[in-house]
Design brief:
Oligomer: homotrimer
Number of strands of chain A: 9
Largest sheet of chain A: 4 strands, parallel
Number of helices of chain A: 21
Distance between the termini of chain A: 47 Å
Order of helices and strands of chain A: HEHHHHHHHEHEHHHEHHEEHEHEHEHHHH
CATH topology of the largest domain in chain A: TIM Barrel
Structural class of chain A: alpha/beta
Chain lengths: 473, 473, 473
Amino acid sequence: MIGRTVPLDPDRLFPADPETRKVARDLYEQVAALPIISPHGHVDPSLLVDDQPFPDPAELFIRRDHYVTRLIHAAGVPLEQLGLTDRSGSAATPTPREVWRTFCTHWYLFAGTASGYWLHTSLAELFGIDQEPHAGNADELFDEIQAILATDEFRPRALFERFRIEVLATTDDPMADLRAHDALAADPDFRGRVIPTFRPDSYLDPLTPGWVERVATLAEWNGSASSSYAGYLEALAARRGYFIEHGATAADHGVRQPLTVEMTASEAAALFARALAGEITAAEATAFAGHMLLEMARMSVEDGLVMTVHPGVHRNHSSDTSRRFGPDSGHDIPLATNYVENLRPLLERFGTNPGFHLILFSVDEASFSREIAPLAGFYPSVYIGAPWWFLDAPDAVLRFRAAVSETAGFYRGAGFVDDTRAFLSIPVRHDMSRRLDSVFLARLVGEGRLALAAAERIAIDLVDLLPRRAFKL
Amino acid sequence: MIGRTVPLDPDRLFPADPETRKVARDLYEQVAALPIISPHGHVDPSLLVDDQPFPDPAELFIRRDHYVTRLIHAAGVPLEQLGLTDRSGSAATPTPREVWRTFCTHWYLFAGTASGYWLHTSLAELFGIDQEPHAGNADELFDEIQAILATDEFRPRALFERFRIEVLATTDDPMADLRAHDALAADPDFRGRVIPTFRPDSYLDPLTPGWVERVATLAEWNGSASSSYAGYLEALAARRGYFIEHGATAADHGVRQPLTVEMTASEAAALFARALAGEITAAEATAFAGHMLLEMARMSVEDGLVMTVHPGVHRNHSSDTSRRFGPDSGHDIPLATNYVENLRPLLERFGTNPGFHLILFSVDEASFSREIAPLAGFYPSVYIGAPWWFLDAPDAVLRFRAAVSETAGFYRGAGFVDDTRAFLSIPVRHDMSRRLDSVFLARLVGEGRLALAAAERIAIDLVDLLPRRAFKL
Amino acid sequence: MIGRTVPLDPDRLFPADPETRKVARDLYEQVAALPIISPHGHVDPSLLVDDQPFPDPAELFIRRDHYVTRLIHAAGVPLEQLGLTDRSGSAATPTPREVWRTFCTHWYLFAGTASGYWLHTSLAELFGIDQEPHAGNADELFDEIQAILATDEFRPRALFERFRIEVLATTDDPMADLRAHDALAADPDFRGRVIPTFRPDSYLDPLTPGWVERVATLAEWNGSASSSYAGYLEALAARRGYFIEHGATAADHGVRQPLTVEMTASEAAALFARALAGEITAAEATAFAGHMLLEMARMSVEDGLVMTVHPGVHRNHSSDTSRRFGPDSGHDIPLATNYVENLRPLLERFGTNPGFHLILFSVDEASFSREIAPLAGFYPSVYIGAPWWFLDAPDAVLRFRAAVSETAGFYRGAGFVDDTRAFLSIPVRHDMSRRLDSVFLARLVGEGRLALAAAERIAIDLVDLLPRRAFKL
């Protein structure tokens, strides 16, 4: 059905024009082997503490990757057949091999997608598989991968070294104990740097299910009254401190719109009380959450945590799927996003504050040239986040570079973030980013817009200087 | 003024890079001669029933094509001079030859436009004209075309066969008798498949002029009371059934925003009554129309008609032009369009319903990567409509492919639709689409992102499998 | 740090593909030496009256160019260190040489930006500098440029001739006396055409600080009562007449949204009275300003001034920076912009009025294919403004061409505007535009979409016919 034997092209992602390709390849070769700095992602740190073999190909590549499951779901395959647990009960769980077969049968869906590129490259580079999966070779591939997973070289720590990961940031609940991070830091046999990220969304927005309980947990830990707005702020600041003690350099915020709202402490306290009493309106809750985003910026100014904002996503668009499979099951959908007016209160207060870092991500491409680059081209605090999620793909990355660089240059960026739950895909994602930046720079060189020496310097800085500086690593 | 002799380039639309061009050409050659499936358009079926010669070049290429007339109008030529009938009376109608002369004099306006490409290619391929029209050759070209139109090979049915049209869908008023479709189906000499499409907009939105009368016509046909909301729904369902009996597979919906609104039957009935009484407010009417769009989805789930939605257009932007020349006179202007929140009620109810097909079109490019591809990449019901109207042009099509494919791959698409009133432009439009898809695929092959064998399979599927599947043909 | 010696590439901005490059170069050579028509910009005309040497490199390239200062500010350098005057007092002003050193140290920030391209090209072409500035050569470059600036060939008038500027439009306050324009027109030694542009924003929007005083000045000049709405309109019309007498062909309007509002004269007069009394609400003021934009269109219809609209910018985003450094200090940020609904009242009244010219600019790329091109593709009055401000850069210009041309062709454009305060950058900006249009046309030729002869004609018309026609020059 789909072409079968597909060896990895060493010049993959490079453009067809021979001159540009040559320059791109030369630039890429300078950065291909540099260590990986991964300042934002979703890998479970206990993976590295336990250092157990990955269980099977389905667990590794499919079940936990909603980029993969959503597209097979769109083809009509229920999520439970891909190994997701249906919380409403009932459905028999397929075996990993069955999940893998379903995946292989639907492999053709991924042609041209970012996931297809990552999967194909990972299979080829890590497992030496140069065939495209299909129904006919599913079992064979499963066994082949399974055998390799059982070897010591495929334990998470061995891969961590082989991938040359220098820093790996995880994303964590504010009340997380961070024991895995401690264990790794204390382990003389593990030399990587694995750091937590403070992600307080569900503690800030009263409309999030479970908010009242979370506020109570915070208060209990803090020894303050659950009903005290001042205690709530204190507890949040203290938990940020706890994260900093455990290595965190950043706090991450996922919001529908990057709304920030000025209000007095007494106004905020009144809304907090109404929220605890379950009496808050949706508009009030939105305002309160917007105020809390501003408070998080204030705390970042005070404690130095880099503030990253990932806005513009309607989470859990399908209620039924959410109810059955929980969050992150593939139906978060981007929205038109307004940064300029929503972030103004925050930037009015902290935009030029030395030491404050605000990294803005976007899944609304229209905002790149219109809002993100102009903001980062003036405010010293604002850094441009890498194209994220649906835009973390070859053509989208090049569109992003073209959209922001002419206004903001290369030095207002924050480097690449892989943002992945899939540990094995980390190197291929960073490699893709390095290839694409080389392609972009090579084009500017070819068009007489950039000296080759400058391009070489920039290629390295994009991988090294920029993430270190923006994320304070 | 403009270059004169312009023979058709066999490699037209292919990129300059020789390697990519070669792959594109090879892919294109595989699909160039495949039958045309045209699942959405505006050709008048009586054209094929009557099978009369096309009257003249102005009728054929200008008067009825608002893509053409609007751009000459923008250059300051009144629409009546292009042969449009001014309903406010008075103006003397120019002869077809005069209209043609005006067109040729303004031919330079079309350089670089989609219409220019279609016109140039049609003139060359169908009429063997390798000169660009201008004032000096207008009469000669008119006579040349006129002579060819009089031949039997240029009768509509002969062209239908020559164009290799397998399926041609028309767009029809819900109360249309569909006699022309019946006649074609019953005619043993005509082997094509010409099917109607149910287009109920003006029966659903109380703000459309004539809505009350249309509701009355529906009720009369149905034998129900005109004032009965239940009867109104019944009649709509019955007319859908009538269309299905006459071969329809789809219902088409053109709306300003793809708003869908949940309300109870009694709420809807109350608004229906207020609308009939002329007492409905604009906001209520918008809500009612949004509810009716949801009802159409419910009926599609029940009767199986594919639901296509063409939103995001401010129709009849110039009131004076509308009054004088009616709708479709060239001043429908796109708008920023929100699919994610507007369609949520519909997708909550039917998004994962097996057998329900919802094809989303857009003229707001920002929505492609942000909303359309993510929705189609999760909901099994959602298919991505081809870039439409102002975006049905070479560069726009390639931007579209780049915007959606990385998220949704190639198999969430619904194939190409020509959406044309201009029968003669059907083959060149489909040919353009096939060339451009070949260009896009060839680039991925050249960048090592897609195996050639996969590209070959996809090129064929885009032309054959995808429209058949999405439109249930 | 950054590559050092960077001679100017004669083929800069041309694409890598050799065939396309050759065609682009040929097209460019036809237009490279054509006179410059600059119908919109911000050069101070007294520069040409006085004809004094430019004082120093910092004054010339840095202090007055907020494209340059904003990006160095984003890197953490306070604006006062770049020579901007802090109105809040205190800070010691750096010497021009110190400012220049700071600039050279931060030169690497401009890699890949439009400003970097203009600066590099200007330094090379005008001053023969083929080195990239850096801390180490800052003093040497300063001295070199300074010496050249002292020569007679670098007086403004000599450069005006050398640049082959045929028309230069300035942007002026409605109450400006236009003496500099008169002096130039009367000077037999100066043969250029330097014309004013009527820019009334701050007289139309009651929320602009100082509006009441400006209205009083208008009334005083007009001899009408300051409280008379009719007198206010009369005075505006009379000042437009004054500008026309002094050579103006256009009125320019910078607004947040291009809102136009119909209201009766008595409604407008009531709002005018409330505004003078300081009692107007923000919503009323917005409506009044929207009404005044409509009135400006009416006056344009009457007096023939071309109406240019530059909407979609949140001016002075950082209040503190505004307070200290005034407007145009680098933190105006674009916004999503709606033309279709906002401009409808205006287009309903004047859209097809012969002789009325409305040139629409945009800094929201999403609007190009969605709104701007479709509007200009129907309304004879609407012309497409060049990509402006943040979008006046190589990739953005090519995106703009691709976005508008397929719908509106090439002849609905208004030519290039440099919109610059930086006199020395005028030729390089126009040269960049000519190169990019040649690149775009060459691609269409290569793709078989445009005959070479047509491309040659269009390349010339874009530089000559289009700005002359649209701006009535």
